Amino acid sequence: MESQAEDRKIIHIDMDAFYASVEQMDNPDLKGKPIAVGGSKLRGVVAAASYEARKFGVRSAMPSSTAARLCPELIFVRPRFDRYQEISSQIKAIFHEYTDLVEPLSLDEAFLDVTTNKKGIPSATLLAKEIRERIFKEVGLTASAGISINKFTAKIASDVNKPNGQLTVPPAEVEPFLEKLPIERFFGIGKVTAAKMKELGVRSGKDLKKKSMTFLIQHFGKQGTHFYNIVRGIHLSQVKPDRIRKSFAVEHTYFTDIHSKREILEKLEEIAFDLERRMEKRSIAGKCVSIKIKYSDFTTLTRAKTITEYMWNKTDFFPLVEALLDLLELEKPVRLLGISLSKLNTEETESDQSKQLTLQF
Hints:
By secondary structure, the chain is an alpha+beta fold. The protein has helices at residues 18-26, 51-54, 64-70, 81-95, 124-138, 151-157, 174-180, 191-199, 205-210, 213-220, 223-230, 261-282, 314-326, and strands spanning 10-15, 35-37, 48-49, 75-77, 102-106, 109-113, 143-148, 166-168, 247-258, 286-295, 300-311, 334-344. The chain has a five-stranded mixed sheet with strand order 5-6-1-7-8. It has a four-stranded antiparallel sheet with strand order 9-12-10-11, with helices on one face. The radius of gyration is 22 Å and the shape is globular.
């Protein structure tokens, strides 16, 4: 493994079944029971599942009806995103007591660069343990952690000892660790890519490492270079505390299908009000507005319109939403609607740079 990858200490913190755990914490009657946040027994999509539900095969993004069949005792809970945001802010405040280099990936996970940290603790392993203990003591939830020399390896490691565990992969063990992994465990390799790799005889990190860069580029294009590097522990992406949001969206799944354009427009207006409220809270504006329609058979349609000026509120963007909807023919019953803004005022260009030194883990 090249020494340039050995310069950092990265921790990936991942909350355990975050939405579901918050619901169980706030409502003791739900503790120890299989719960799904989002959806209902009849329709919708599971946003999160407790570990008790996961034992039955219930997973996030699964249709609620499927989840209910897998686990007849499943309890559906309406999501409370304001509450999840509140808890997430408490957790991030703890992170910032250790380092300013915190890159949130979502409400429930983040990368921390603790190469140089505010506590002056040389061991990233001990730092991760202390952070997890503080989250449990001060917030009441468990978290898992992965610790390694780069974001890619740390993220994979955080999943190994879940829930409420951690794993450190020091520099000398990165390549052996990655070689043993099934290819589908590699972060960023989805089902389609994994299936293609298996057709090419790549079932593990060890198999991937045997393939030349030329071979990987030939079969996977630009991604081939990425695959060649990551299995060798080379991933130079820095922890970016000001991670740039590329889009801002609100979407709703409905318990009963929508059959008319008039009703779709009414629902889109409700979504627009919600989007406007969130935009104002974060001072976000965008130049491109998109609408998303998911039909009852789960096929999805999107349409977008870009203008030269920033749209700051519903008055600015909703006329474009109406115009986009007018261009569409309603083909099937609708189960989900959404509005998103992109080309945001928060977008910037950033360059990746790295510094090199060898440190203890």
